Amino acid sequence: MSSKKKGGIMPFLLGIAAALVVGWIIFPKVLYVQETQPVRFSHKLHMEQIGECNLCHSNREERAYATRMPSTKDCALCHYTALTGSSEEKELVREYIKKDKQVPWKASQKQPDNVYFSHLAHKDLECRQCHFDMENRDNLPPKYVNRLTGYTKTTMKMHECERCHARENTSNACYVCHK
Amino acid sequence: MALDRRGFLKFVAGGVIGTGLTPLPWKLTDDISIWTQNWPWIPHIPDGEINSAPALAKLGQPEYGILVSKVKGSPILARGNPNHPLSQGGIDPLAASSVQLLHSPARIRQPMRKKNGAFQAISWEQAIQEIAPKLSGLKGQKNKVACVSGDETSSTNEILAGLLQGLGSEKFFFHPGETTLYHHIWQKIMGGRGHLGFDLPGADLVLSLGPDLLESWGNAVSQQYLFGQGTFRLLYAGPVQNNTAAMASRWIPVHSDALGHLALALAYHILKKRSPPRQNLSGFRQLHRYVRHNYTPLEAQKKTGLEEATIQSLAGELLQARRPLVLPGSLSGSCDVSGFDLYCGFCLNLLLDRLNTAGGMQCIPEPPKVVPGAPSWSKMLSGDLLAELRRIAQGSTEAPELMLFYESNPVYSLPDSKLTRKALEKIPYKVSFSQFMDETAATCDLLLPQHHFLERLDDAFTPFSSAAANYSVGLPVLEPVHSTRSTPDLLLDLSGKLELDLGAESYETLLKEKAGLLDADWGKLTSGGMWRNNTVVSQDRLELWNDRISRMLGQDRERPDKYQVHMVPQTDRRTGSPRTAIPPFGLKTLREEELEQNTFFIRLNRQTARKNGVREGSLVKIVSPEGTCRAKVNLDEGVMTDAVVVPLGFGHTYWDQFSRGKGDNALQLFGIRCESGSGMCHCSTPRVRISKIEAAR
Amino acid sequence: MLDEPLLPEGVQRCSPARFLVWITLLVAVVIWGAVAAFLIFGWGLGVTGLNNYFGFGLWITFDLAVIALGAGAFFSGFLKYILGIDELKNIINLAVIVGFLCYSGAMMLLVLDIGQPLRAWFGYWHANVHSMLTEVIFCITCYLIVLTIEFIPIILENRQIHKISLFRNLAHNFHIVMPLFAAVGTFLSFFHQGSLGGMYGVLFGRPFALREGFFIWPWTFFLFILSAIASGPVFTMLISRLMESFTRRSLVPYSTKELLGKISGFLLCIYLFFKFLDTWAWATGVLPRSGFSFEEMFNQVYGQWLLWLELGLCGVVPAIMLVVPTLRSRPGLLYAASFLTCAGVVVNRFVFTVQTLAIPVMPFDQWYTYIPNWTEWATSAMVVSYSAIVVSLAHRYLPLFPKERQLNA
Amino acid sequence: MSESMQIHEHFQIKWGMVIDVDKCTGCGACQVACQAENNIPPSQQSFDRLRSVHWLYVYKLENGRPYPESDIAYLPRPCMQCGNPSCASVCPVIATTKDEEGGIVSQIYPRCIGCRYCMAACPYHSRVFNWFDPVWPKGMEKTLTPYVSVRPRGVVEKCTFCHHRFQLAKRRARAEGRDPHHLKEDEYIPACAEACPTGAIAFGDLHNPEHKVHQLSRSEHAFRILERLGTEPQVYYLSRRPWVRRQGDNYVQKDQQRGE
Prior knowledge:
Number of domains of chain C: 1
Largest sheet of chain B: 7 strands, mixed
Strand content of chain C: under 5%
Radius of gyration of chain B: 29 Å
Helix content of chain B: 25-40%
Number of strands of chain B: 28
CATH class of chain C: Mainly Alpha
Number of domains of chain B: 4
Helix content of chain C: over 70%
CATH architecture of chain C: Up-down Bundle
Shape of chain B: globular
Structural class of chain B: alpha/beta
Oligomer: heterotetramer
Order of helices and strands of chain C: HHHHHHHHEEHHHHHHH
Strand order of the largest sheet of chain C: 1-2
Number of strands of chain C: 2
CATH architecture of the largest domain in chain B: 3-Layer(aba) Sandwich
CATH superfamily of chain C: Formate dehydrogenase/DMSO reductase domain
């Protein structure tokens, strides 16, 4: 057959290869926008100093729906004036603490509008079970936002919640989480 | 290797198969479905701490404390305040829309001046430069400046009236309503003192002669609460099975012009069975004689249209009850009640010995005055706007040069709108403080928009129908959304420019002073609490009989025979108040038999429909001596034969898309009647003609 | 003729110009429907005449009707390949195409009908096994795939394509396995026809549609299957008759048509026997138990005339006409009876869809009437038009009817 | 009714509502509170049951007698949260279920594909479809609550008994170290019940003898709508008026006169 002479199976394999490159490498890059955090922050360092998550990420606002990001007030508890002399810290003090302006932290695990989440209901779990290795990170991970959905790359998918709820023998009823 | 057609096809085939092995198609399919939850053109919900702040609902009667829920300081909804005694956690549909009204498209966003018939936005400095010289030019000239206020409880009235007084004018008027009419009859005709209140919480039997007390009369929210608690037995007399009648243990169908007669017919039986009241009442003997003579069972039957047995059993119930209370008043909770009806109702209470006693009619002291230059509250309440407008229109009184409108929309909400317009046209310069572009604001020359009530500090002293003197203060719960200003503060500023001393730096100091005079705790007031005092004013010169009363009793109503059907106005808080149009959420609660597209419905029973040649759903014209409305027919057997219910609150021509052009304004069917004897002008409920509009037209 | 080489051998076809005019007309209708579809996708289903009372309307009626009428495909296949009635080879190709069009057309309308078409795949991924609709979704999709597979060898019969040995071999192999697909199709089709009926029968909040059942299946499950196989064959036959009158050529021998009529007639009798039984049981059982009388199920618009139309004029009358050989042998009567049979099924699907929803169940509720608007008509017309285009192309370029040459000799 | 049509699930808690029809004045506060709480967009038209998005509708009932024997009543109709919902089993994509403790029938907007089969199944017309995308006048979107997500066009929605308030009540209980599944009376009530000025709407756990709804639902004046269909609503109504009770269901002539 003439086709065998003209490359045989090669174009087919080439097609597969090209698709794999597009699908595995280019597509994820195109799909997400990377946003960097406004201020450099080391969880590792702070954990060494403070030793617990709850001081800054306290859920004392239990009537609130939001997972709590530290407010400038929380930072000011220690950083009312610069402690280390690093330029990042100076910027924090100058731009946010002195001006009493909230740092626009970029939450990368914010729940979508249709999900209700209570940290209080999960307080028996270790933070790292969901927030992975945050406590050992020396910098804040950049936020990857999906161009199509607006969700972040690290937003938990429903099946992840369900898996844990099933394991823990907790209800997986829709209205436990949805709103 | 040249890529021929076959080669290309193979490449594509490989590409398709290869793509299936990557996350691309699967992730994309999933993401597209997630995208459908987050369409960028659909608003997102807020996220953050939720808390609530107490506020005071000031949308017109009733006024009471509410709670406003906020997310990150931004109000999201209004709820009832269980701790405020005037609401006990309840809320009405209008107040429940308060937060949405903040963002109504009808809000006036900044001061405006009318130029060549169109409004142009101006700054506050320009606005003050415009108004200040005008006022100072009129200073010292008698009655050149007039003012209409639609808020009967706010201390702003003292500032307004005080300013007028300082300028040399006594033309301060309250928007006519139950407060002014009750005041007129009680103080001017019967020689009473203080304001009338009604101790519904203390009563065990309530006979309502007209008032729709579970919907539009007095503080409906509080009354609904009491009704729910079952503290009193409710009897309703009136021409329509309104919400109150439907809930009442008994509905006694009586035409609206016979309600006063019913009161006296009942008085006949009470006078027969009961000893005279303890209260010293001058003219008791004359009244006694009049009633015994004119309200014999036969006469009563003729005058009320009720069976003798009905009247007798009703009187029996009143006599048997330990703490009965009779409520006379308007069917729509506004000014459609005659002095005669009010007088008869008051008399019945007096004959039952229900004055200043638990569950009875209470005489509440006047609020303390904090603006020294202002007239007394009694004086302020005694202005008769309807009479004044009539005189201006007829030319018997000179029109003022300038008129201020505060929380009042007379162009829309007064009867005989032709007359109102005619009178207002004679006033060369008009200023509105309205928050919303209402019908009156649209006719004004200068708009000085006031804060929405959730954005401002304001107070309420003893809203109409309260059982005892009370005082509430509402703090602003958010920063103003638009470039508006608090009217009382603006007026205090202006008075400074006019070199008038109103005795206060700011509205806040004024209210604090008032609280001080009342011995009320400011902290408690501003955190959603209420001050209350049960002191009543004793009466020493009450008159049941005098010249004016005898003239009032003697007169007969004119009855044009061209018109056959009694018109019954009805108010529903879902369609707003005299000050506020249909709120955004209210519109959607109007059923299909209340508003269809842009046509509203009137209600009448089958027999009336047959007599007038109309059917369910017919498009009809309602013609009264004053005007015409277009409506559809809703058959309702809860309406008396020969009566038609016309709902109020429709037919706005300004406001926003939620109220503009929805139905017709039934107030244009009503006339102004000035009663001989009492001398009081009120909204008359004339008879009307109903005729089918031919489909061909 | 320009496209002479593409036409089947030895048959007459109209001129390409004429054919082009015809196709253009059909495409114009498709464009009209596409405009409506664009509005629906762009703004939402609010642009249609559907509403909160009539969530199901013209589209669902159309879908149910064409799926019932498209049953000719699986049932003819079943009769030919499984029961070995060879006479049906004269029409089996057309039956497959009509079936394919009915199902693919229904799918198109379903995509329009659901509010969130981009989530359509949830039906497979997040399937609820308790829902009759899930069964429908799965079976219809699978059956559409089967129909596509059955359609492919017919396309491969085209004169030019057939010259290519690969495709020729492929076609041959397809023909060998066709009985298998016929069997699979029969199974799938039985189930989803039944499930479509079941969808209504399980609505225990709607006494008009509610039916008792056999095990988990309400009686409508079986009635829908019976009515579909009773009307499917004659619908295919009517399409062939329609093509004959358009092309002015004989395509299918009358004996085959008569056979289809006879099959339908007998099945219709069986269906009607059960349908009358069911209606009686419903009127004397379901209704009084729910507190309704038979009369309360009808109003001025959706009156009892619909019931008598469905069961009488479009039920008993055609059944007699099709069963009695002397009547069946007269073409006019055969076609009329076939038409009435099909109309009866459409009425049946309509009342189950629309009347079920029109009846006020709460005592203080009221009747409403549903009127489809132009967007629904346009998109439905688009599907009809698309089907006409495919049938026209197939007729022109594919040898659908083995007896065509012989009949027109 | 065949087996397949029934879902038998038992919950420790059974949230229920008892609405005293004799106390409902039809004022509409519940409807407005519901709209504000649940982010239901305002409409530029009056209520249209064919198209309006609404969760709670107040029906006006009439006894059908001529004047002066006429009588009216108002009947607020939320979702009945049926014990045996006709809607949940028919959903092809599990967007609506009855699985939560308390027995509230859930409706998950991001899952719903908009087939409207549940609407066809529900005889109460409790379910509505988003025929268009929701629109708020400019600026009014600031009044959206954080409680309920905004629904796009093409999905079905319905009353949820303000289940987000249940979520919040559970969280409050957790914060105070109490068992979130043993809530006190009135710790969780929907927005309509809270707003009702006459207190016509009572809410609580029907299983719990300490909650007032437990007793109220057993009153001789209690009835449910369309009880005969077997939907087992968790919403009860009370009326001392026989004609009102009779409007709760359909009866053929030979049926016993209910409540008379």
